[in-house]
Structures are given as C-alpha cells and as structure tokens.
Amino acid sequence: MLNNDDFNLLNTLFPAWQQLTTKQQQIISQNASLIQVKKNNFVHTTKEGCSGILIIKKGQLRVYTLSEQGKDITFYRLNDGDISILSASCVIKDITFDIYIEALTDCELIQILPCAFAKVMNENIYLEAITYKLATKRLCTVTWAMQQMMFTSFDKRLAEFLLNESNTTNSNEINMTHEQIAKLMGSAREVVTRMLKYFSTEGYVEITRGKVKIINKQALEKL
Amino acid sequence: MLNNDDFNLLNTLFPAWQQLTTKQQQIISQNASLIQVKKNNFVHTTKEGCSGILIIKKGQLRVYTLSEQGKDITFYRLNDGDISILSASCVIKDITFDIYIEALTDCELIQILPCAFAKVMNENIYLEAITYKLATKRLCTVTWAMQQMMFTSFDKRLAEFLLNESNTTNSNEINMTHEQIAKLMGSAREVVTRMLKYFSTEGYVEITRGKVKIINKQALEKL
Asked: Do residue A140 and residue B68 have CB atoms under 8 angstroms apart?
C-alpha cells in the first residue's frame, strides 16, 4: 500500500487516472507499492518474467538489450515521472524480445502489479488506448536505436550522442567518463576513447578528466 | 470511392468498424480507394512520406528496412485481410525510422487517406486503442526481427526461417529459390546456398531446383 504522498503521485503520473472509476482507482492503488532500487542493480530482466508497470518517482533507469555474447544496446533512458511499460510483458503480450532495465542512480519506483493493471486495462478503453500509445512510442524509439546501431558508422553515432547530451543538459560540457559513454552507447571504452581522440585532433571537442567539451558543434552535426 | 463489394470489405476488415458512428464510417469510406500494385513494385518508402492505412484485399506485402549501403532486413510479411499500419507515419507520429514496403505478388489494396483516418481516430477512442494495439504488435515483431538479425548466428536464422515456412504452409517442402530465401532473410544468395549445402550434407534438408525439403526437423530445431 502507498502512503498519501505516493497516492497523490499516482493521481498525477498514472495514465488516464481521471478516466478510471473510483473502483478502478482503488484496484490500482491497492496493488501499487513503493520500491527502492540501488544504483547499478537490475530492475527487470527477461528471465525473471514480468515486472509490471513502473512509475519513476525519482532516479534514472536504462532500458537495453543484451546478446548471448554480452553485446549491449541502449534503447532509451527513463527519468523522474516517466513510466516503464516494456517491463510489463504479461500486459503487452507481444513483447517476446529480450529486455533489461537497470538503475543508473538510486531509484524510487512505484510498481503496479501486472494482473491488477491488466484487469483495469481490459475494462477501461481509455487506459487501454493510452497504454498502447505509450508502448508504440517506446517501441519506435527501440527500432530507431537498433537501426542506428546496425547501420550508422560509429563516428556519426558518437557525434549524435554528444549533441543529444549537450541538448538535454543545455550545456556544451558533457560530464561523463569514456567508460560511461561507452556503456550508454553499447560500445567499448577503447572505441570511444579512440574516436574522441580523433574528434579532439580535428578540433571538434576538448577532452579533460571525466568531461568532454564540444568546441565545433557544426562539424559534429555534419558527420 | 469504393464499390459495394469493397465497402463490405471495410465492414469486416477495418478495425473497430462497429464502434464508429455512421458519420465516421462515411468519412472513412469516402477517403478510401482501391489501388492495384504490380509484383516487385514499392507500396511505401520513407522518402515518399506517409502512405496511410492499407488493407490487403489480395496479395502479399513485405515490410522491411534498408541501410544506406543497401543492407536489407525483413520485418514481416502481410497477407490477405491484414492491415498495414506502419505505413502511416503521419498517423503514428513516433515512426521516425526508415521503413519500406514492397509487393511480393500482384496486390489489391484498400488505401485510407491518413488525414481522414487520423481525424476519426482522434474522435473515437475505440479506433485509437485498436490502432495503437496493432502498432505495438507490429513493432514487437520488428524489434524481435532486428534482435535475431543482430544476435543470432546465420545457421540458427536459416533453420528458423525454414521451420516457420514449413509451419505456415503446413508442408515439409519450401517452394522457394535460394535467391528468394536470401531476399526475405535480408541476406545474400551465396550465403544461403552455402548454408543450405551444409544442411544438406548434414542430412537436415534435401535440395532440388527451386525447392527445399525438410528431412530432419528435430536437427533444425536444435540449432
């Protein structure tokens, strides 16, 4: 059960909350609980089955896939207020591919049990529509990420990554180690370091300890 | 405009038709037309923009993606009665990845203009729910196909392809040339021929002109 503050969070973050009946709202809140996940721990793995719907109260999650050989592709990241839907493979039954979710920071999550969510979704067309709309959005991002990985050469991908980070944080400085960049890009540290050195020689970026500064944005965009 | 027969087809094939108002049904049918596409022609390419919703009256479509270098991945195929939803990138606005659709046979398609479809979908929650549910289903298949392509070795993929074809047609004989198999798998003829020869040496299949016969199903399943 949730405390009052967390119940109010459902009110603002749960999809289509206003379109649920009082009874349906009760079912959801009675089957919701606050969970804490420490940084670097798994929130969801395919092998452990369905983790239900997760609302991120605080923290950052990384959603990715992993091959048998350990190759790793980041699909997307989720932040405060976002909803994790692809973790609910028993609600969205077409999810047959492998998916992993890890905590990039210490996280507080509201977890809604899949059986309760599925029951209300089957009764309420508004919740059904918004759930599948969100799933479509996430899966389009997944498809785009996989296309990038398969088809785009690494210099382009790294440039896009740096420009994206710079846009998101509204700063030319990206406060990440090469190791962190490599992990988020599904690459190896050596590969990132090599390409960043190349970018630096070309005058695109400046590299200092744990930081990458964009000097020539236009050049990166042209890659 | 559609003739009476094709209008009746909408009645059975259009998603959530019974939940549309008479007015909404009129909007859809007034913006629907029957189009003929010859075998091997494009039905949709990313560059040409949004092709709307396509209902396959007759024929087979292949939905795939293509890299700048011409590498090709089959996402799925659509048959009589199926609905093509990922061709409507202006209805499902999150579709930002490249997608191509070609006719594998001569096709008859009912095309619904995207603006009309979007208008009705925005008014009608049932159509919205079923549209995003279908998009989710297709995108899960896309994700699965890309995972196979990236992570599974080719012998496994070819075995899965042959077993799938055999299941679909309910026959041990797959009536396709190596060229056709290669195209559908997003591979090259030489690679398919090489692997089929290997399968044949191992006693998994028998190869004759334009045909592959499965001899040892269990062995293929074990790969």
From this structure: no
